[in-house]
Amino acid sequence: xxxxxSGRAGYARLTRRRAFALAALALAVLVALLADLTVGSSxxxxxxxVAIALRGDAAGSAVNVAIVRGIRLPATLTCxxxxAALALAxxxxxxxxNNPLASPYTLGVSSAASFGACLSVVTGxxxxxxxxxxxxxxxxxxxTAAALLILAASRVRGAETRTLILLGIMVDFLxxxxxxxxxxxxxxNQLAEIMHWMFGSLTKASWPGVVATxxxxxxxxxxxxxxxxxxxxLSLGDDRARSLGVDAGRLRTGVFLMASALTAVAVSxxxxxxxxxxxxxxxxxxxxxxxxxxxxxxxCLCGMVLLLCASVVSKLVVPGVIVPxxxxxxxxxxxxxGVMMARGKV
Length: 346
Hints:
- The chain has one domain (4-341): ABC transporter involved in vitamin B12 uptake, BtuC.
- Helices cover 77% and strands 0% of the residues.
- It has helices at 4-38, 46-55, 62-97, 109-123, 134-157, 161-185, 188-199, 207-225, 228-234, 238-243, 248-270, 276-288, 292-316, 325-342.
- It starts with a helix and ends with a helix.
């Protein structure tokens, strides 16, 4: 039997290890940010790139400033924000569904958002006053609709995690088929735009995308931080959570909608990027455990590192060509799933 002082000392050591893991991940994010910012085909030296990013015109010519501040910096920041958003959404979905394979990509929310963006390319829906808002609004609308459809259908049969997962798979197939139909009806120019959403690419990253993604991530993270205790209790099972006073059904619904909103905003600016929401929470869980006070920030940091590293690889695979980052993450995800299967984790 462990006495009280030993228990407190053990918890303090565990907390220190978790804090150290978060600090190490934060350092890894900084390194990955610098690597992604400085890698490119323009021939700019790394130190010059960083100087231009920090000081603008005072550190370089107008052309170099346009390259760094107009192209590279928004792409890098978008990459970091999207990685964190998808990872946080994946952590939330795995927690509320108690399933290691749950993620925005596998549950159909990502495909619904991608279909909305593609439909916007072809039709202009939803005809916003600012055309640049069409794709993000359409992605958000369809991702939210998909989430509500899954939740409504689950209510009919009972909101069990297994039911939600099966419904998510059905929704994924539905919107994948609808996206194929939109592709079939698109013109050549529209089809080229649609391919951007299908592959997942950072080549069209912009400052409005950075602001929208970062703002959504900040809001959801702030709300989620207030739910840490309840989400940790839910990870122990519905019965245990209810015994601790947690309304499991209501919590699951609210968190599912927040995760869907995160996914929609991310997809609307960079397209469908798979497996980040699946892999990052698993890596974070191995480092800090199930306590959501540490798991949420660790998942976000792992998502940033993964997507930033994938972005760096996408620039180096073919010299002078930027491979869509979604292809790199898909290859990473397949490898990770293979390892999990080999270890009997799924």
